[in-house]
Amino acid sequence: MAATSSASILLFMLAAVASSAAGNFYQDFDVTWGDGRGKILNNGNLLTLSLDKSSGSGFQSRKEYLFGKIDMQLKLVPGNSAGTVTAYYLSSKGSTWDEIDFEFLGNLSGDPYILHTNVFAQGKGNREQQFYLWFDPTADFHTYSILWNPQRIIFSVDGTPIREYKNLESRGVPFPKSQPMRIYSSLWNADDWATRGGLVKTDWSKAPFTASYRNFNAEACVWSNGGSSCGNNNNNNKGSSGAAAWMSQQLDTTSQQRLKWVQKNYMIYDYCKDSRRFPQGFPPECSVA
Ligand SMILES: *[C@@H]1O[C@H](CO)[C@@H](O)[C@H](O)[C@H]1NC(C)=O
């Protein structure tokens, strides 16, 4: 008995070490622009981006990923954030790139942020869905997740799915599945369109504007030297088959109900319902529930 419990305590301690190592921004990210406006703090546990009148800032992951379950906690620019955009996304390179986007459009104090989402495949996007959130995203950190496997992309907020983009290659819809992507984030000024369609401008007297990031976690296939390795990053959550569970994860009944709840109560724009934009008919993925 004593031997068993000390073995399980040891396992618990090893697990704790692995998950704290997963969140180190020094190890996983580079601040790539902004001339000191992006900062890694608290021994690598916190990253902040800021924006003022002369520049925004941004960071990117050191690794490239081909499929994964990627979580990040964000706390968005508080107060009057009108005109600011915090983009957090995955993207590959080249003219036929793939991209999976979260973009947070700021607002006047007390008015709701818009969470804008999009999926690009082979250089083509135009698949916007926008949401309000059911909480104030500036008051605390919340978890924004992308599950990306060969069958689907699921966007989630605090574990609640808000959007699913299925692999419908069988119907001629391109799906991101062969180009590795990096994680990017940036805080920038877009007051020509972001807030109420550009009507509300950035109030530079409130600058600098700051967004914060913590608790990055990727259970993912890491791309290097033209190949992908899914085996040796931590928290890989292997199922009994030996493959990572997220590789074939789909929405269970409860998650489907929550997705419907978000789409019914918080979705404010859906390209699949914008008939003025598609007078010749909606894209094929729009007719699949
Ligand atoms: C900002 O608030 C206005 C008024 O409530 C709302 O119409 C708009 O969708 C909000 N969000 C953005 C990003 O404009």
UniProtKB/TrEMBL annotation:
<dbReference type="GO" id="GO:0071555">
    <property type="term" value="P:cell wall organization"/>
</dbReference>
<keyword id="KW-0808">Transferase</keyword>
<dbReference type="InterPro" id="IPR008263">
    <property type="entry name" value="GH16_AS"/>
</dbReference>
<dbReference type="GO" id="GO:0010411">
    <property type="term" value="P:xyloglucan metabolic process"/>
</dbReference>
<feature type="active site" description="Proton donor">
    <location>
        <position position="103"/>
    </location>
</feature>
<keyword id="KW-0052">Apoplast</keyword>
<feature type="domain" description="GH16">
    <location>
        <begin position="19"/>
        <end position="213"/>
    </location>
</feature>
<comment type="similarity">
    <text>Belongs to the glycosyl hydrolase 16 family.</text>
</comment>
<keyword id="KW-0961">Cell wall biogenesis/degradation</keyword>
<dbReference type="InterPro" id="IPR016455">
    <property type="entry name" value="XTH"/>
</dbReference>
<keyword id="KW-0732">Signal</keyword>
<keyword id="KW-0325">Glycoprotein</keyword>
<dbReference type="GO" id="GO:0048046">
    <property type="term" value="C:apoplast"/>
</dbReference>
<keyword id="KW-1015">Disulfide bond</keyword>
<feature type="signal peptide">
    <location>
        <begin position="1"/>
        <end position="22"/>
    </location>
</feature>
<dbReference type="Pfam" id="PF06955">
    <property type="entry name" value="XET_C"/>
</dbReference>
<feature type="active site" description="Nucleophile">
    <location>
        <position position="99"/>
    </location>
</feature>
<dbReference type="InterPro" id="IPR000757">
    <property type="entry name" value="Beta-glucanase-like"/>
</dbReference>
<dbReference type="GO" id="GO:0016762">
    <property type="term" value="F:xyloglucan:xyloglucosyl transferase activity"/>
</dbReference>
<protein>
    <recommendedName>
        <fullName>Xyloglucan endotransglucosylase/hydrolase</fullName>
        <ecNumber>2.4.1.207</ecNumber>
    </recommendedName>
</protein>
<comment type="function">
    <text>Catalyzes xyloglucan endohydrolysis (XEH) and/or endotransglycosylation (XET). Cleaves and religates xyloglucan polymers, an essential constituent of the primary cell wall, and thereby participates in cell wall construction of growing tissues.</text>
</comment>
<dbReference type="InterPro" id="IPR013320">
    <property type="entry name" value="ConA-like_dom_sf"/>
</dbReference>
<dbReference type="Pfam" id="PF00722">
    <property type="entry name" value="Glyco_hydro_16"/>
</dbReference>
<keyword id="KW-0134">Cell wall</keyword>
<keyword id="KW-0964">Secreted</keyword>
<dbReference type="GO" id="GO:0004553">
    <property type="term" value="F:hydrolase activity, hydrolyzing O-glycosyl compounds"/>
</dbReference>
<dbReference type="InterPro" id="IPR044791">
    <property type="entry name" value="Beta-glucanase/XTH"/>
</dbReference>
<keyword id="KW-0378">Hydrolase</keyword>
<feature type="glycosylation site" description="N-linked (GlcNAc...) asparagine">
    <location>
        <position position="107"/>
    </location>
</feature>
<keyword id="KW-0326">Glycosidase</keyword>
<dbReference type="InterPro" id="IPR010713">
    <property type="entry name" value="XET_C"/>
</dbReference>
<dbReference type="GO" id="GO:0042546">
    <property type="term" value="P:cell wall biogenesis"/>
</dbReference>
